[in-house]
Amino acid sequence: MSGPGFRLEHPGAVLWEEYLRPMGISQSRFARDLNISFRRTNELLNGKRGFTPDTALRVAKYLGMSPEFWMNWQAAYDLQSARKKHGKEYTKIKTVPQKAA
User: Fold this and answer.
1) What is the Cα–Cα distance from 85 to 11, expressed in whole angstroms?
2) Shortest CA distance to 43 belongs to which of 78, 66, 11?
3) What phi and psi, each to the nearest 5 degrees, are found at residue 47?
4) Which of 40, 67, 77, 89 is buried deepest, with most CB atoms within 10 A?
5) Cα–Cα distance for residue pair 77/32, rounded to 1 Å
């Protein structure tokens, strides 16, 4: 899904650009329809807040999708962000040899 040089977009930004905006759904309407605060909506759609299981369930129900789609995207985005931020630290960690069962 994401390799060297590939930048995965924040799932909230994708939700805004690929779904809500083309459907003509404003941030205010989206917040009302999902019964969440405008601030929470705005932060999600601007990549300042991640998907939680609650948010994924609400968005999935609203758009007729699976919550796993949004949670998996968020997990991939978070892993990419951690690798970018702490990658050098991870290379210093030695792998413990596994014994055969």
Assistant:
1) 19
2) 11
3) 75, 20
4) 77
5) 27
pLDDT (tens digit per residue) in 54-71: 999 999 999 999 999 999
Neighbour count for residue 39 (Cβ, 10 Å): 11
**Number of domains within the chain:** 1
Q: What is the CA radius of gyration of the chain?
A: 17
Tokens of 97: 């040899």
Instruction: Note down the domain range covering 27.
Output: 11-70
The answer to the question of residue 77 being in a domain is: no
Q: Give domain status of residue 78, yes or no.
A: no
